[in-house]
Hints:
By secondary structure, the protein is an alpha+beta fold. The chain is built from two helices and seven strands, in the order βαββββββα.
Amino acid sequence: MVVVGPHVSIITLNVNGLNSPIKRHRVAGWIKEQDPTICCLQETHLSPKDKHRLRVKGWRTILQANNEQKKAGVAILISDKVDFKAKQIKKDKEGQYIMIKGTLHQEDITLINIYAPNTGAPKFVKQLLIELKEDI
């Protein structure tokens, strides 16, 4: 007997900054319109003190890695419609990656959202995955 679990959809978007209220509103509307299970955003440009500005109705689980200088920045948003519990969160202070280990509908899941630098991206990702290997 094959048991098919709940459908999970993941979307990703490079938002190129979320410091404008109008842009945050547009992105929130886009996320609601797409209606995914998980949404990954890159280049949020939010500082740690501004992370509360990223809000989407129906999405209370918003985990972020932010840079003090309002550059880079990544976020993973998880819909309230699913049973998700975070067990481990690993992120860098540069806002270039966040890794979340947890359970989604009682199944183990690891999510990694990466914003790689424009130059040397393959090397950056390779080195990052080596560093995270023990946690994945």
